[in-house]
Write a structure and sequence with these properties.
Layout: H1 3-14, E1 18-22, H2 28-38, H3 44-52, E2 56-60, E3 67-73, H4 76-89, E4 103-107, E5 114-118, E6 129-134, E7 139-144, H5 147-156
Antiparallel strand pairs: 1-2, 2-3, 4-5, 5-6, 6-7
Helix pairs in contact: 1-5, 2-4
């Protein structure tokens, strides 16, 4: 099963009035350029999603017409833009400095909460952890190691922030 099917299935399980809308695929050269610009290697599962859809929008079905309410996964250009902004605007010391090496790929849509991969959590035999950054409390918390499980938990409300 490919990422579009995995994501559609997660939305179906979650129920509700939202559904995913997939943008055209990213080019490998675009992703490689983003990796170079950010000095970060994209995890394989994130690269797979981006190669199938350069961003996944969350769309709300509404009586007046469907409305894009946010992103489930940012497109490559936004991944670069948001990560550059965060690295520029946040101090490198204290708790906020912990985010400088994180590769953020999505936001929760509230209070500036972001999701990303933290290279500091990678160990032999284990990939980078998916983390949640809460800027109001300046905390960075691991929420799992598998993007599919993370997305399902996020979409069903099983992931407590």
């Amino acid at each position: 099963m490919g990422w579009p099917e995995i994501i559609q299935k997660a939305y179906a399980v979650a129920g509700g009035e939202c559904y995913p809308r997939f943008r055209p695929p990213a080019q490998i050269a675009t992703i490689e350029s983003a990796e170079h610009d950010l000095g970060a290697e994209f995890p394989a599962e994130l690269m797979e999603i981006l190669l199938s859809a350069d961003g996944v929008e969350e769309v709300l079905t509404h009586t007046a017409g469907d409305v894009v309410i946010g992103w489930l996964i940012w497109p490559v250009s936004q991944i670069v833009e948001e990560n550059r902004r965060l690295r520029t605007e946040t101090p490198e010391n204290g708790n906020e400095g912990a985010i400088h090496d994180v590769l953020f790929f999505a936001n929760a849509g509230v209070d500036g909460i972001l999701f990303g991969y933290d290279p500091a959590t990678a160990t032999e035999g284990r990939s980078k952890a998916i983390v949640v950054w809460k800027p109001l409390s300046t905390t960075l918390t691991a929420v799992g190691y598998d993007l599919e499980v993370f997305l399902k938990r996020w979409l069903t409300g099983d992931l407590q922030l």
